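During the no-cost extension, the postdoctoral fellow (Dr. R.K.) reprocessed legacy sequence entries with the updated structure-token encoder. One reprocessed record is reproduced below for audit purposes.
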Amino acid sequence: QVQLVESGGGLVQAGGSLRLSCAASGRTFSSLGMVAWFRQVPGKERDFVAAISWNGGSTFYADSVKGRFTISRDNAGNTVNLQMNTLKSEDTAIYYCAADRSRLRVENPKREEEYDYWGQGTQVTVSS
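Re-encoded structure tokens follow.
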């Protein structure tokens, strides 16, 4: 059984930075495929934020975070991180880590259906 646990959320002022981490247990990240971050505001759909391929060679970002967020993968350390800079109030959400069980090519890394494992989420609040 694979478990993903997010950490690093909190309250930050607009313009500030936060670094989210996703840790895996049950399997190592090196054996998993694409890993992504999604976010959700209560009452709204969950939105794609960023994704990284199994070997870190490819990254994908939502237009709304491009240039501000950076996803990285440390397979040896068994973590995937999301560095969030120049935060805006609209970045306020619960952030979820998700992983694909297979290294096979993902059709569309921005779709929730591509991912098999999900964390419980971590709250990020950006005050303006």
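The mean pLDDT is 95. The first strand starts at residue 3 and ends at 7. The remaining legacy entries will be reprocessed before the final report is submitted.
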